Every structure is written in structure tokens, then in C-alpha cells.
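User: Quick sanity check before I run a bigger batch. Here is a single chain. Can you write out its predicted 3D structure?
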Amino acid sequence: MSSNSNAPQWRFSTIFLGALALAVGWGIRGNFGHEYGAGYAGCLSVIAVCLLSGRPDWRRRVVYFAAFGALGWGFGGSISYMQVIAYTHSGHFATQIYGFLGLYFIGFLWAAMGTAGAGFAAVADRDRLTEIFKPLLFIFGVWLFFPWMEAFFENALATAASAAADQTWNRHKSPLYWMDADYHKALTALLGLALFDLWDRRSKDSIFLPVFAAAGALGGWLFQKGLQVAGLEQGFASALTYPLGDPHAINPDTGQAFSAENLLNNWPQWFGDFPDHIGWVLGLFFGIVLYFVFFGRFRSSASLFVYMACGWLISFLVFPVFLGLLFTDYGGLRLTPPRSDDWSGILGVFVGMSIWTYRNGLKPVTLASVVGGFIGGAGFSGIAWLKLMMVAPGNSHMYQSMAEDGALSTDAAQAIITKWSHWQGQNWHSFLEQSYGFVNGLAVVVALGLLASRVKIHEDGKSTRRWTEAAAAFIVLIVMTYVNIVKNLDVWVSQLNPANWQRKITLPNGDTETAQALWDVPFIGRLPGVEWMHLTPTGWFNLTYFLIAVAFIYLCHRHLKNRIPVLPSTPLGKGQLLFLMVLWTWVVANWERAMPGMDGSRLLTEWTIFVNAIICTVMVLVCPKESDAPSVNEVEEFAPLYRRAWIVGLVGMAISVTLFFSITRAVYGDYFAGHAGEQRRFGEQAEWRIHPILKNRLHR
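Assistant: Done. Predicted structure follows.
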């Protein structure tokens, strides 16, 4: 995979800006979290590398790079990883090596999906790139209404089960709860794809859908009834169920063994609430699936999302749900018990995406995904190791433990701790996040750099489906900004003047609770007889964003008819403007979020991010050249490169993880390093064993 170092994609400016852009985004992502924050961070780096690549066809597609890059990087944001970081700090031999391997695995999946999204925009032809927006919008449409759908089903099921639906952190009381995983997103994605397929085909065979559904429901009901009649139902259920905890372990809070009845299990909560309805409900689902197997077409590349969503569900069922039965003495086949098992779903998404791209003539996307994945894996585990090395000098946990063990005098230990106290008090988690983001940016640079000189220049010709450019811009500039910035409201409501932002409401049982204040419409909100013209702060925010969205759609419509002069006329200029809009919206929103609780410890995050954003601004305006023209030697067969990427990546993983683990053990021995929770994956003190999620306790 040798490359010309003089090519635009391998210049220092490309490498540094691509990495720094994602470092900025990743530092902010830590404040906003999850899929939305990761998506926004990833698209910054993808835009930068696209512009600096020098490829004119990529620059024309910059808005697609931004949208698909954001969507790709968002997948990994659902994976639980803080416990895995804690494992590397634990001082427990088996837990530590597991922690470094786990971080490599998570980092691989995160970067693999992120670089796959960018790779799709780089490799797909114009028709495939634009047609995929149709099924994508159907998925987004279902997801838009999902919160109301979820609330409806939760309330209906909870009422039927005579248990109140819980919208607090007692989320495991919800009938839809299942191992804290986001399986409903995969299911609702399939629902959106089913609706798209029915709309796309408009076929008379749709009449068979209720027939298949009814037949499936009947078959499932008969199967369950057969088990009941034969007296096999209880044994069948027991054979497929295991507790998410150790019923023989001692609860450290009570000194008594955990009650088996108080532990969750590996199936959805509604299975226990409505056991007599499991058969027909599952049969109904499989009946619908069979209909689409026989009649579905899933055109417009909708099959990509089918592969990914089915991959999520299959992998989730295979690993934590079923194979977990074989590892009950170790907490099941789960990455971070008792936390979410979304890792298995994202693994299935990666496998589904890889199979689809490989089968559909997009092997360069698969290559970029694997290359980016291994760099991201090395980055997550490697930066976690670097952080451990950085916090070793004067580490209070280590030196206090050494003093207690007699390996060092108490006075000597205290002197060392005091000397390094300021160093130890820095915001080391932010250091980890921004540094890991920098390496993820390198993953984008390398993955797209390999494609820049090997994939043919796209001659898109006449622009088809120009509305998709507006849709992609809407996703990046409106949707991604809203889902992140709206989270600031919780911070402002909880930390700013309570008299302005909060109110007390009395519940039917006489208890009181805090809610957001009601702000009146100016002038007319409190006229005589007018008592309803007010909104909460979140309501005003949503109204404002709705107006922004409407204005954006209108302006896009006008621009597609007749270019608005303020917008640059060149692809490079448009890409630079897009980058700056994404960057500074992100930076300012983060600053607004941090301001209520700002203190000196936040300088490593907010001040560093601001300075790096200034550097990114200068570089993105100066470094890309209109005259850049990379040399492209199209590669016909990517399979050898793909195989080599796996071999090199796996060998590199084995070597790096061994080094990270061995050096950490040499520095810390069996001592806990601090700067993370003290948690173990294995042994009698394993987190899943001593702190399981209990039905009658708050979720953690």
C-alpha cells in the first residue's frame, strides 16, 4: 500500500488538518456523547480530507462526504466503553488484557463504520450515491416518530401488565427493555425499509402481507400451545434463559446473596410480563419477514440498510443472547456487563455492510473500512495506554498502595504524591478523548488517501437528483446540529438561575417535582383571558429550530432554481464554507454548554478546542489549492489489498496490545491506576457479579 508522499492526500497539511479536525470534534463529542456527537465529530475530518485530496470529483461531492461520514461515525457512539477504559486501569491481570483488547475492538468498529461512510461517498457512482437517499429518508421518517411510538407501546404494555411505565433511569422497568441495547433502532429501520419497499413497488402482491402476517402469528401461537400441551414450555424457556448476574454472589450493600428473582435475564422485559403472547408475536414478526423475503425488492440500494439492520439483530441474538448461555460463569458473552450490549449490534452492522459492499462492486469501501478500523483500534487502546503512562508520575493510588504493602515508606510516598499533585489533577479524560480523536482523524486520512490514487475519477456528468445535495446539507447543518445542541437545554435548566428556568409542579399524589419554566409569548402571552400562550425553554428552542429548518428548505429550493450569490460558485469554496459552518457551530455550542460550570480544569478541553479550531480555520482556507491534481492509477482488483489489510492489521493488533499490556503491568504491577472507575471484568469482584442491575433498584 505504498503511496506517493508528494500527492495532495499525503501532504503534511492533509494529514495534520484531517487529524486535528477530528480531535476538535472528538473533544466536543465527549460533552455531547453518543451517536449524534460522534457523527458530528467525524464529518469535520471527512470534509477536510475531501477538500485537501485535490480530487475535483470528491470536492463536487463534499456535502455527500459530510453526510455519509457523519452517519458512519455515528454508529460507534452507541457502544459502551467507559468500563473498558476502567478495565485497563484495574491492576487485575485478566481484566487488563481484556480491557486493551476490548478498546481495540471498539475502536476498530467505530473507525471502520466511519471510514466506510466516507468511502461510500468516494467510490459509489452518482446514481447509486443519490438513489440511496430515498430509503434513507424513510428510515429517518420512522425514527422521527419513534419516540411517540415507543411511548405508546410502553404505556400500553405497562398498563396491561399493571405496572407504570418508567421514563426515569429505571429504564429497565420498561416492557421494551432488552439488555440495555438499542435493538429498536434496527427494528424501526427495517420498518422504514419495509414501508419504502411497499411504496417503491406499489405491487398487487401487497395483499399477501396480511396473509403472511396472520399465518405467522397462527404458526407461532400453535407452536407455543404445542409446547404447553407437551409440558415442554417451561423447560424450553429455562434452557434459553440465563440471569444477568450471579445469584450466588453476595450483595456488598446488604451482605446477603442476590435474589435470583430480582435479576434481569437475556430476554426482553415483556417476555416476563406477557409469557402467553410470545409465540404469536414472534410468529407475526417472522411471517412479515417471510413476505419480504419472497416479494421484497429493496431497490435504490435499500438492500444495504437491510443487510446492516439484519446484521445488527442477528449478531445481537447470536452473541449476548444465545452464546451467552455458554458463558454464564463469566457474566455471559458480553463486553461490558451489566451495561449495554450494542457492541454486538454494531459488529453485525459492520459485517452486513462489508458483505453488501463486497458483493456490489464496492470493494474499495470495504478496504477503506478495514484500514480505518485497525488504525482506530490501535488509537483507542494506544491512547488509553499513553494516558496510563502520563498519569504514572506521582500516581496517588499506586504510591499509597505501595506504602500500604511496605514497598515504600509512607513519608516517601506522600512526598512523591504532593510533588505531582498538580500534574495528577489535570483533565486527563479530555486528553484521552482529544488524542484519540486525532488518531481517528489519521484513520480517515489514510483510508481516503489509499482510495484517492486508486479509484477512478468520477465523471458525474449531468447532476441527477440535485435535491439530494440539499438533503445531505440538511442532515449535516440542521439535523445534526439540532440533535446535539438541544442537549444544552438540560445543562442550562439545571445550572442557570432556577427562578428563571425552573418551576415546581404538584403531582396527583401530592408530591412535587421540578419542571422547566413556562416563558410567555412577548406582549400577548398574559393578556386578560390569555393563559395558554407560553412554552418551556425547550419548546422555544424547538420552535426556533423549526423556523430555521423551514428557512433552510426554502433557500435550498430557491438555490436549486437560481444560485444564491452569497454561496461560492466553486466546489472548493462550497466545501470550505461547509467546513467552517460545521466547525464553528460545533465549537460555539460546546462553549455555551460549558459556560455555566466553567472553571480552570476545563481549559484543557474548551480552550484547547477553541485554539485548535482557529488553526483548522486557517488551514482549511489556505492549504487546499484549486490546482491540486492527484495522480490516479486505477486498481481493478482490491481483493489482494483487502486480504493484506486484514493480515497486517491483525498482526499489528497482537503486537500492540501485547506491548500496551506488558508495559502497563511493568509500571503499575497489580496496583489500581485511578483516573477511572475501579472495575473488573473477571473474578469474584467482577462488576457484573457484585453490582448487577436489579429490578427494584435504579439503573446504572
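Confidence is low (pLDDT under 50) at residues 163-168.

User: Great, the batch can go ahead then.
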